[in-house]
Please model this.
Amino acid sequence: MTARNIDIMNFSDIAYCSDKYQYTMGKSFYESGKKDKIAVFNMFYRVAPENNNWAVVSGTEEVVEMILSMGDKPESFFEKFLPGDDYAEFRKYLAGMRFTGNVYAMKEGEIAFPNQPIITVEAPLIEAQVLETPLLCIMNHQMAVATKASRVCRSTNRPVSEFGSRRAHGPWAATYGAKAAIIAGCAGTSNVLTGAYFDCSSTGTMAHSYVTTFGCSVHGEFEAFDTYIKTHLGENLILLIDTYDTLHCGIKNAIKAFRANGIDDEYPYGYGVRLDSGDLAYLSVECRHILDDNGLRNCKIFATNSLDEYLISDLERQGAAIDCYGVGDAIATSKANPCFGNVYKLVQIDGLPVLKRSEDKVKLINPGFQITYRIMKHDEEKGDIFKLDVTCLRGDSLCEKIERGEEITVYDEYDRYKFKTFLAGGYTATALQIPAIIEGKRTAPRRSLGEKKEYYKYSLMHFSPSERRLINPHYYKVDISDDLADKKHEIISRLVKEINEFKEL
Model:
């Protein structure tokens, strides 16, 4: 079963999950003769959440599907939000509009730094403009979840499962958020629709209501465990042991039920207990002693209960005997930073680079049609490691040198005394933005969820450990080419001159 067999999200509808101003601007472009001007928009973010240096890319697959599904709506659909005779001709245009342009995007699982173009759209102006809102809606959600999942998973060497569907912001968010979490390192998800949609296994244990169904008593707890084991032989068996009292009856009833059904360390499918309340560090250690004393050394201890990367790190500092974690809303809602900051900005129109010069320095963007290269160098002690990222204007002098494998020097945009030189043959370079759609046709191959996860792991491990740490990560060099910097400064200087002259009128 593939994602296309399940209609959880009608992409032709999602393409119109937009803001009205995208279409009122479109009418102006249409009537002023600008509709066929070729625009280049970059989607990027300015600041990584939670003091990260970087974020994890997820959602580009859905963006491609959304873009390619545009154009199957009748004029009557557009009349619902563009009524009146003044919009009649424009509605007819929209009903027949299909995406005819190009899209370049980072792969899902890629690690992206601030101000790098994650998605670049090159298309006739109206086609590109109306994509802004649905594109950002998809990418901001999935990258928020993926980046948080990455942080949680990097806080431990033990498996982390995503258990957050019940607190996700709707079924779409639950399903695609779980997908993003798996890309960024989660071992699995409890969401069965994600499992079916993306051909990955879903996992689950039991709820407290299952235990209390058998009567609110110590014996009822044993009966619940015994019944569960009998009805799930040949599967992984995880028993929830904190319904009444973890140490005085829960763990004892679990051991009794395992023994009654012949479950021991020889059971090939795995077995364990789950803790969902109390002092998880203390309880896990005590349970570990009890299990080991009873010969159940392979019995795993699974922990849940409002966990995040900080609590997991603290549990491990305390010596908790936990084998795997289930994390819910911290991942599913990116609880600490639920609003990811991707933006979608025009950088070129009809071949002319443009930018937004804001009162806020952080909002100053890089103009022009860009491409980002990741430079890798072989280290005799550390192996192949990523050394820096540099964003160039497509076809500029540095871009051409990189493509030819020549010696390159990358200067700091703000300090010319800081630079790195790479000799010819001493580095490899990878373009991070790949063609996803060319002339309205899909060009990027579809990849499985497992392939995306492996790509993320590959990318992550080629950064240094200091760059991967959660607290105060080491700075990874991210820069722009001299030609791009010069073009940006040229535009700004001209604007400042014009503004000053305008003030003098």
